[in-house]
Amino acid sequence: MLGLSELLNIASIRVTFITTEHILHKLSNNSQNNSADLLSFRAVPDGLPDDHDRSPEDVGDLIHSLHMQAAPALRRILSSGGSDGSSPVTFIVVDGVMSFMVDIGEELSIPVLTFRTISACSFWCYFCLPTLIKEGILPFNDETDMDERIQSVPGMEGFLRRRDLPSFCRVKELADHTLQLIISETQATTRSSGLILNTVEPLESEILSHIRSVIPNVYPIGPIHAFLNKSRRSSMSSLLTEDRTCMAWLDVQPPKSVIYVSFGSIATVTRDQLLEFWHGLVNSEMRFLWVLRDNLVVNADGEQETCVPSVAAYEKGRIVSWVPQLEVLGHPAIGGFLTHSGWNSTLESITVGVPMVCWPYFADQQINSRFVSDVWRVGLDMKDTCDRVKVEKMVRELMEEGERSVGMRRSASEFAEKVKSSIDEGGSSYAELQRLIHDIRSTGTAGEVS
């Protein structure tokens, strides 16, 4: 969302960035705002207590609370009409799980675009969930064969398995709150004026064509971070403090010799899982740069634990709390990425041609990892397993010279070139971004985007 705001700023469009008080506090602690004249921040309550951890497992509670608590505050901000000294809002770009904003937009006669920050393939699978329910594929039961092929998601018939469906599909009751919430919010996208996706036409062209059959106005404008890099700009803030000492360590490592390990900003692991990864990485004898967040390890009750292996026992490894990921992935020393398959991480890795080992955690990540391994063939899928033997085997297969490794690197390099071409003038993402900017401007030059 911040990256999109920055792109609109570059186009001289004034943006009001509305987020929750919880997130704005984190942004304020790590702010690097380069566009104070064109970007302003406003905060609304999310309705959850300050000590709530807002974990992925509780995403349903968060979304429900936002619908109840944030809607009135958002309506007040958007309906002020410049009476508070700001420019009147002429356009709304809203997160895809906040469909109530479409109602507010209609009430105030302001057009609304939905921005889904997941992949196109994940969004399309979400959209097809009612069909999976109708055909009896959902819900799962104790006898479910997780490797059974799914034939009910157009464009994915040849490779999608039950285990590749979003994590919230692994429920035994259709009444599950999160499942029903994701279904209703995704279907509501058809009520907005269009859909923005942070993806690239050459990467997901077939899936985008299926999405356009139900949502004709789609803007695939990604990768957003690549546009910002090309403009010599970067996303303005990080929610975590970066440890840049890792860059000097990478500088003295041989080319393509280091596997970068990170499970993103919200995924968690148990102590046993962490140790399996540790032993697998050490046994592979590969150099590694591993991000271990303070809140990465949890116990069976979801409570935070402290368990950081001693890197002194393995001189080829380095452990840090957080890194400038775009710089790390683009460093010549990086030869592979062990990732949770979040869409940002996946797209960032594809953009620089770095192959992946995927260990998806939740939501869209299960589908992303299947596309990485079996569609784009730029990595290996390790979902639903976590043992040191498998970790060692896949890390070696990715990093060592071999027929499969060479094939993955070739595919990754080819997709990196396609991504680069897409953001150049005349490329598909460049054209879609210009169309988005034109459509926003055409609503009135005196106002601003929210």
From TrEMBL:
InterPro entries per record: UDP_glucos_trans (IPR002213), UDP_glycos_trans_CS (IPR035595)
Pfam families hit by this protein: UDPGT
Uppermost EC category: transferase
Keywords: Glycosyltransferase, Transferase
Protein family: Belongs to the UDP-glycosyltransferase family.
Protein name: Glycosyltransferase
Source species, domain of life: Eukaryota
EC number, as in UniProt: 2.4.1.-
MF annotations from Gene Ontology: quercetin 3-O-glucosyltransferase activity; quercetin 7-O-glucosyltransferase activity
Gene name linked to the record: UGT85A5
PROSITE patterns documented for this protein: UDPGT
